[in-house]
Automatic annotation (TrEMBL):
Keywords: Membrane, Transmembrane, Transmembrane helix
Entry keyword annotation includes Transmembrane: yes
Entry annotated with the keyword Membrane: yes
Organism from which the protein derives: Williamsia herbipolensis
Protein name (database record): DUF6297 family protein
Transmembrane segments: 7-26, 46-67, 98-116, 122-142, 236-255, 366-388
InterPro entries, alphabetized: DUF6297
Length: 389
């Protein structure tokens, strides 16, 4: 993504608003009323360092892994780097820029964690710096391995880390990530990035050995959904990480009134991570028709896997969290409904009627309702679970 001078005032204003809200919400005395470090497991500094590393790896590290330390659009690679000039300095500059962005992201994440205990700030910030170094190193090694695989050459020594020798498809892949990121920034909908990630996985797994699944029609569709999830190791790993967070959170941190809300978000995320089959049926109506049967029947069958993820997460929460059984049941039912609603969201109606306000503004209510499909159920579930306790 590129930023022009015309975008600078809006970016500065947005940054100032976000910084002001962050400063207001992340005051230590305000944060201590809802979350803090649990005593008895270990030293608070060690606990916060562990959470800082985990958050940096899951948030910043995932972005660096999928985006790549060196990323150019296909047009930039074609028109700017195809001349007689050396492309090494340009790519090295992009790598340094990525390293700086990674460092800033890790420091920001570590600062948020350090709010829980300001006395642990030096250790937590040091952990953020170390995490940034590891993230950039691993992401760069992954990009160079991809380049070696594309060029079918294995480089050694200093050439292995030279950005000038990277294959073009390694730093400017035609995977639509840049266009998806721009659309996500314009429409405030992260579904574009998820679609680009799925398309990227499909390009890398265009051929798979088929398997004959026996049994009845319902059993075959469920097994096919399980097989699809097993091939999507990234989605499977996200579900495992959510379960790990559900186990580690009550052991290391204490949550007060926001515990039911956090439990709802975790259960909903676990279900969405395993809802790839249901999303494909929604995005490809021809596949749904090829399976036969009514739409409610096919939806119910393919909802078994994501609902299983929600139930598994709620079972872990019931065993490790201090929530009442009615609250856990509300979280399970509400998160399952929200997961199915989100996975069955149709294409966004960008041609929806526009409502012009009296002040000269314009909005599309139907588009906004479609964008928050499933998220409203998460909010309502969290509120009900909080009232029940």
């Amino acid at each position: 993504m590129s930023v022009t001078r015309d975008d600078a005032p809006g970016i500065v204003l947005t940054g100032a608003v976000v910084a002001g809200l962050g400063w207001y919400l992340l005051q230590p005395e305000r944060v201590a009323t809802v979350i803090g470090v649990a005593h008895g497991i270990g030293h608070p500094t060690a606990v916060l360092v562990g959470w800082a590393i985990a958050l940096c790896a899951s948030v910043v590290g995932t972005a660096a892994w999928w985006w790549g330390p060196i990323r150019l659009s296909r047009a930039e690679a074609t028109w700017h780097l195809s001349g007689p000039g050396e492309r090494g300095p340009v790519l090295a500059g992009r790598r340094r820029r990525a390293a700086i962005v990674t460092l800033v992201g890790c420091l920001a994440t570590a600062t948020v964690v350090a709010v829980l205990d300001w006395s642990a700030t030096p250790a937590v910030l040091g952990a953020g710096v170390g995490a940034a170094v590891v993230i950039v190193t691993i992401a760069s090694a992954h990009q160079h391995r991809s380049s070696d695989r594309l060029s079918r050459r294995r480089r050694r020594g200093r050439q292995r880390w030279s950005p000038a020798l990277l294959h073009r498809d390694a730093f400017a892949p035609d995977d639509g990530f840049i266009a998806a990121a721009r659309m996500a920034a314009v429409t405030l909908d992260l579904g574009w990035i998820d679609t680009a990630r799925v398309a990227r996985w499909q390009l890398a797994h265009a051929w798979m050995r088929s398997r004959r699944l026996g049994g009845g029609r319902i059993r075959v569709m469920i097994l096919a959904d399980v097989l699809r999830l097993s091939r999507r190791r990234g989605d499977l790993a996200v579900g495992v990480v959510v379960l790990a967070v559900a186990v580690a959170l009550p052991s290391t941190l204490y949550l007060t009134s926001i515990a039911p809300v956090v439990a709802t978000v975790l259960a909903y995320r676990a279900g969405c991570a395993w809802a790839c089959g249901l999303r494909r049926l929604t995005e490809v109506p021809a596949l749904r028709r090829a399976l036969g049967g009514s739409d409610p029947e096919v939806t119910a069958i393919h909802a078994v896997v994501p609902v299983s993820g929600v139930v598994l997460c709620c079972a872990v929460i019931a065993l490790t969290w201090h929530l009442s059984l009615p609250a856990v049941l509300v979280v399970a039912v509400g998160s399952s409904f929200a997961t199915v609603r989100r996975a069955t969201r149709p294409d966004l109606p960008f041609d929806a009627p526009v409502y012009v306000t009296g002040q000269g503004g314009a909005t599309q209510p139907l588009l906004l309702l479609a964008m928050v499909r499933g998220l409203v159920a998460v909010v309502v579930t969290g509120l009900l679970a909080t009232l029940i306790g």
